[in-house]
Amino acid sequence: MNVTNRHHLRSDAVSRLEATLESALGVTIDGDAYERVEFSDESFDVVLVDGDPLVFTDDDEFALTVQGANEYPPERGIVTVDAGAVSFVSDGADVMRPGIVEADEGIDAGDLVAIAEETHGKVLAIGRARVDGSEMVGDSGKVVDSIHHVGDDLYTFTV
To answer: Which is nearest to 14 in space by CA: 67, 41, 66, 54?
Structure first.
């Protein structure tokens, strides 16, 4: 990940970021400094909140990183997977119906979701829903595309 630019967010961008995360996930981010880090080799940028990479954005939407979701646990937009799916999801695999034990019914196809493990509720990945939350639990089929997971370049990114 090659950093090309780094700058503080304007107050209107911070307000939009905070409102988006509150609306989508029920999360209230409370930071003093918001800094955007742009990359030449990625399709997304990272927002450092008080120096930590807690949010990523592609300009159209904001989402929590895995670290952000574990620091500010989402109240909505959560897909919970069983112990058998943990190693696959942690390695970046897309989420299949048989591994899901619960999904927020408010999820719409196309939404960004947090993928958590059922034992401790820790977020393992961030993905994009292929179907509505009410259709996620079942016997077969891929229902969430993985975007960011534990151990990937974004997870290990430091400034």
So the answer is: 54
Give the number of other CB atoms < 10 A from CB of residue 29. Answer: 21
Q: Are 107 and 94 in contact (CB under 8 A)?
A: no
Q: Is the CB of residue 42 less than 8 Å from the CB of residue 1?
A: yes
Listed residues 33, 51, 71: the one ending a domain: 71
3-state secondary structure of 98: helix
Tell me, yes or no, whether 61 and 98 share the same domain: no
Model pLDDT for residues 97-151, shown as the tens digit of each residue: 999 999 999 999 999 899 999 999 999 999 999 999 999 998 889 999 999 999 9
**Residue 34 has what DSSP assignment?**
E
Write down which residue in 25, 52, 71 finishes a domain.
Answer: 71
Tell me the C-alpha distance between 55 and 77, whole Å.
Answer: 15
How far apart are alpha carbons 1 and 90 in whole angstroms?
20
